[in-house]
Amino acid sequence: MGDFEDEEQEQITLNSDKITDIIAGCMTSKLNTEKWNPKKVDGWTKDIIDTCLKQLGEMKKPFKFVVTCIIMQKVGAGLQSAFCARWDKMKDGVFSAPFDNDYLYCITTVYGLKTD
């Protein structure tokens, strides 16, 4: 019976390290060698979000996921992101990772909302 409980618990929780790795991998694979080009930003954000959602879906967890992505040219100004939510801290979660290279900043955030 203990194995079933462990398996059930695994199904209803999110592994923050795995999700952060997914986010970081998506940003790195898309942006690592890119230079700032405002005409490409829409495509970059769409690709990062779509890839994150696909990989999150492959985890087959009972969660709805919301993914946001912000990309800004690196010109000496800072980039900060914040959020506020009213949810069940035991079931829902937020995961965020930054990325930067010599030309741009990116912050991608994943919100995981448990489906009951």
What does this 3D model show about the protein?
The protein has 116 residues and is α+β, with helices and mostly antiparallel strands. It has one domain: Tctex-1 (Ribosomal protein S3 C-terminal domain, 2-Layer Sandwich), CATH 3.30.1140. Helix content is 38%, strand content 26%. It is built from 3 helices and 3 strands; from the N terminus they run αααβββ. Strands 1-3-2 form a 3-stranded antiparallel β-sheet, with helices on one face. A hairpin with a 3-residue loop joins strand 2 and strand 3. Helix 2 packs antiparallel against helix 3. The radius of gyration is 16 Å and the shape is globular. The chain starts with a helix and ends with a strand. The N terminus is likely disordered.
What can be said about this structure in brief?
The protein has helices spanning 2-12, 16-31, 41-57; strands at residues 63-73, 93-100, 104-114. The chain has 116 residues and is an alpha+beta fold.
**SSE series:** HHHEEE
What CATH architecture would you give?
2-Layer Sandwich
Largest sheet: 3 strands, antiparallel
Number of strands: 3
The low-confidence runs, each spanning 5 or more residues with pLDDT under 50, are 1-10
Residue fraction in strands: 25-35%
Give the % helix.
25-40%
Give the N-terminus to C-terminus distance in angstroms.
23 Å
Quaternary assembly: single chain
Assign the structural class, choosing from mainly alpha, mainly beta, alpha/beta, alpha+beta, or little secondary structure.
Answer: alpha+beta
What is the CA-based Rg, rounded? 16 Å
- Count of the domains: 1
So how many helices?
A: 3
The best one-word shape is: globular
